[in-house]
Structures are given as structure tokens and as C-alpha cells.
Amino acid sequence: MSKRSAAVAALLVVLGLLVARPAEAAAVRIMPLGDSITGSPGCWRALLWNKLQNGGFTDIDMVGTLPAQGCGVPYDGDNEGHGGFLVTNVADQNQLPGWLSATRPDIVMMHFGTNDVWSNKPTDTILAAYGKLVDQMRASNPSMKILVAQIIPMNPSTCPECAQRTVALNNAIPGWAAAKTTAASPIVVVDQWTGFSTGTDTYDGVHPNDSGNQKMADKWYPALSALLGGGQPSPSPSHNPSPSPSPTRSPSPSPSPSPSPSPSSGPSGCSATYKITNQWGGGFQGEVTVKNTGTAPISAWTVTWTFANGQQVTQAWGGKATQSGAGVTVKNESWNGSLGAGASTTFGFIASWNASNSAPTPACAAV
């Protein structure tokens, strides 16, 4: 090859790289943020990455200043999972802005606070740290989408009080998120607590084993895929597609949420299943699964129910909710109305309650 031909070939390679850059820049940048549960090695991230790839979410880039650790499968493992770190220390020492500047995420998924609970940090102090980190995320990107986990249970042999402290923190997170969320920068609460057992899903009472990693990946997936699919969710725990028995202590204080009724089916081929996913004094979070029970696709759905105890919906995500008196109507968003035969989607909401919180029986109509 002549020197001139070699120079032309080299120029074409450079131009090819330049052309490729806009596509790379378009990838959604996702930062996993937390402690050793996220990063040491945090193999739920490997499972989640591959689950996203298999689900068609291929234009994503996991980002962080820490590299992947071995999990036995190929995956994009960049992260901010700092073993032993306390979220209160990260906030007090202003460590997050440097990580954000280096990685420029569009979405942050945060499972943080285990070491704070272990160190007996008050719940209010942990929530204040969460709030400071959210402010720093929004300073980096005003449209930051934020997933915040209700952390997995913990029961280390050296901290018999940790289990109940975790319950206290998880109970407080939904109310905090509801107050902190904005339309431009929604905070989605992902319930990593329910269905997770320290006895069967951890190897030491704190860190997830293989079954625990799978449960964590399964919990992150619906919330993250909803953001990647263009929805604008507000606080909600994610739907657990394969629920397992919950630990003995429940994060929902007394009175306990009422049992969910059986799904209701309308004549037009869809059903709606209502459940209470979390409850605290004066408020609760609910989730409704809408399923196409017919043999043909549907293009839109509407779910209705009537509250019996004066409950009032204050916000909703994954559906457009209106309430008149005790009656609630929820219509699909533009991105989740079309459902193939047998397919399903979920929407969630936050509502107030007083002396009682019985679960209504929803009805579903589809077109």
C-alpha cells in the first residue's frame, strides 16, 4: 500500500469514529449508586444488564468511577457501589458531585443506607442525606430520573436491632420521595424489601446470594424499563413478578393493609388486580396490574374502582388518574395502552387513608 493510500485509509477510520460518536452519546447513562450491596461485586447488576438487553433496552450505558467485578457473565459493570460507605458520609463530604461530573448520568438507581442503619444513624438523618444527594443529582442534570430503593432486609449477628431499624427507614422512604419528587425529575421508590429473606437470600444476613441477586434484578427491572420506555413515573415500588414469602417483620405498620381481592375481568377482555404495596400513618402506596385477558391486542384501557373508607388519591404514575367523590378512574398513558394478548402493565399511586383502608375491587374496560 502506498503512503498516500495508507493516509486515506487512516482518515477514513477517523471519520468513521467521528460518525459513530453521536450514536454513542445518545445512549441513556445509568449510575448504580450505593455500598457493597451495589458494588462488591453487586452481581444483581449483571443480571439486570442482561435482562435489559434481552428486553430490547440495548441503547444504555452503565456509568460509574468503579469498574465491574467478576460475576461470571459479560455485562457493563461500571458503578458507584462503594463498599463500607455510609450515605450520610457521602452527603456530608460532598463526594457525589465529583462522581456525577465524571460520569454524567441521566438516571441514578440508588440502594444506599445499609451501613447507616448498622451504625444506628437516625432515619431522619438518612433521609436528609438522601435529599442532599437528590439536590446534587439535579444540579448535575435538572431532568435526572432517580430510582430509590427501600433497602433489602438485614439481620447481622452483631446487630439484632438492625432488622427493625431497616423497617423504620423503609417505612419513611415513600413519604419522603412523594414530597421530594418533581415533574422534571421524578423519584421512583423501588421496593427491594418485600419478598426478600435474610435467611434464604443472603449469605451473611446482609449481602445477597445468588437468589437474592436475582430478586434484586427482578425488582429493579420494571421501574427502570418504564423510565427507558419513555414513561414519567412518580414514587412507586416496582412490581415483583415472582413474589416470595416476606420476612417475618413487615414494613407496614398497623393496621395492616387489607388483603387484595381477586382480579376483576370486564367483558372487553382485560382484568385489573389491586394491591397495597406499602402503608404508613395517613398514607399508602397502591399498585394495579392491568392484563389483556382476550385473544386480540387492545389499544387502550380504563380501570375504575370505588373507595369505601374515604381514601383520596394524591398522585399516580403509569396512568392518568382522576377521582370524583369515592370513585377513581385511571386511563392508560400513551406508552402503555397497547397490550398484546396475555400481556400486562402496571400503574401505581399514592393515597391518603384514615381509620380504615379496605381494598376495593377494580373493573377494567379495554378497546
Please give the structural blueprint.
Elements (H helix, E strand, L loop, with lengths): L2 H23 L2 E7 L1 H4 L4 H11 L5 E3 L17 E2 L5 H6 L3 H8 L3 E5 L2 H5 L4 H18 L4 E6 L11 H19 L6 E5 L6 H4 L8 H19 L35 E2 L4 E11 L2 E10 L8 E6 L5 E6 L2 E5 L2 E5 L12 E9 L10 E4 L1
Parallel strand pairs: 1-2, 1-3, 1-4, 4-5, 5-6
Antiparallel strand pairs: 7-8, 8-9, 9-14, 10-13, 10-15, 11-14, 12-13
Helix pairs in contact: 3-10, 5-7, 7-8
Word description of this protein:
- The protein is α/β, with parallel strands linked by helices and 367 residues long.
- Helix content is 32%, strand content 23%.
- Strands 1, 2, 3, 4, 5 and 6 form a six-stranded parallel beta sheet that branches. It has a five-stranded antiparallel beta sheet with strand order 7-8-9-14-11.
- Helix 3 (44-54) packs across helix 10 and helix 5 runs parallel beside helix 7 (123-140).
- The longest helix has 23 residues, at 3-25.
- 46% of the residues are buried.
Could you provide a short overview of the structure?
This protein has 10 helices and 15 strands.
Count up the helices: 10
Task: Label the structural class.
Answer: alpha/beta
Shape annotation: globular
The description of the largest β-sheet is: 6 strands, parallel
H/E topology pattern: HEHHEEHHEHHEHEHHEEEEEEEEE
Strand content: 15-25%
State the end-to-end distance.
65 Å
Query: How many DSSP E strands?
Result: 15
Helix content: 25-40%
Whole-number mean pLDDT: 84
Spans of at least 5 consecutive residues whose pLDDT stays below 50 are 11-25, 230-262
Radius of gyration: 22 Å
